Amino acid sequence: MADPANRSPSAGFIRGKIVGLDRQVEKARKTGRFDYDETVFGLQALDRYTLRIKLNAPDSNFPYLLAYGALAAVSREAVETYGDRNAVHPVGTGPYMLKDYVPRSRIVLEANPYYRGFVWNFEPSGDPWDDQLVRDMKGKKMPQIGRVEISVIEEEQSRWLSFQEGKIDFDKLPQLAAPVALDNGKLKPEFTDQGIKQYSMVEPEVTYTLFNMQDPVTGGYSREKIALRRAIAMSYNTQAEIELLRNGQASKAQMIIPPGVAGHDPAYRSSIAYEPELASRLLDHFGYRRQQDGYRTMPDGSPLVLKIRTEANASSRVVSEIWKRGLDRIGIKVMFEVGNFADNLKDAAGCRLMMWGGAWHADYPEGENFMQLLYGPNAGQGNYGCYRSKAFDALYRQAIQLPPGEKTESSLCADEPSDGSRYGMVSPCVPHTELACPALGDGIQEASDFAV
After folding, report:
1. Cα–Cα distance measured from residue 104 to residue 106, given in angstroms and rounded to the nearest whole number
2. What's the angle, vertex CA 272, arms to CA 241 and CA 247, rounded to 5?
3. What is the pLDDT of residue 407?
4. What does residue 137 show for φ and ψ, rounded to 5 degrees?
5. Neighbours of 269 (CB within 10 A)
């Protein structure tokens, strides 16, 4: 993960944490080669089954990191044997082995006969379907299923048809199928009569629109730039996205940390709402003047044009239409630059785009996992808004040393405006949000429906 050649988007999770590792990374950047044989003082294999990790500073969240998939142990022999083909030859100690893999088509898993196993003994959460699951599974040895066949069907309509035809047993309900399958959020009788069951949950995920804080139009920390970003955020109709794109299966996010993650405050309310008229007055006040064509200029009279990156799919088109309607109402001209996700991600990592939509799903249930999206040293790797703030970084470093749930009294620096729109994100729905500290946006928490 730390090897620069791999360009891991999760490298920020361990940057600055392990004694001696950063020195190795810097050396690799200069030489072009990561020396896997050189000793890293903070990583010591005490015996075949014990790894000692020494940290540069206390970090109560580090045990969560160790449960993250990208930090799973990988056999050196497997890496050296398969090299770049390691992705299709995974070697691990989990409950399943990869029997067959056809890229973009199918994955077949079989129970690992050498797996150590465990007996199901979890406590119920109080949710009715979870309570029933615990009753059904209690005392059984894992894994229960001997073979799992996964069909890779990228097109939602095709996947939904396969589910209806009984070709697949479990699927996340496609957004386009929600009006067909659900009535007021509940599965319709024609589906329940077939024995199909629905499981609903609010996902620990946020979606958001990010601003490049280094861009000459959307970036910067002056009052007029903060006003511009806030006005843009206030022009986006989050509820329209929930209804048009997510078929009502989402909820508005109030902060960057979603429900189910330590640090989420259910009483917190974002200071940004859908208020295009107020946004227009805000722009008037800070000198963004309307011209005869109805669109505004920058305070210095230069053209004001937003360039929003997007992808060529139906969901992106819906979001673009919502942006266009809102921005037209407040007099800001917008251009949508359509590209593929990989290229957009590359430009975001290089701080080369102006605005783009993103999402983040909890890697582990601690708020730091979301707040690190704004940490200055992570700019270009997770922090795709390229946001930097000495005040925020100081609070972030202070927070990660605290055990989950503990609080400390702190305040932002005097020269940092308390207005949440100073941050490099702004959100629309759930999975959408902006920043957490005073508030950044108007996001939504996605309610995912599962049918079995």
Report:
1. 7
2. 15
3. 61
4. -100, -15
5. 10
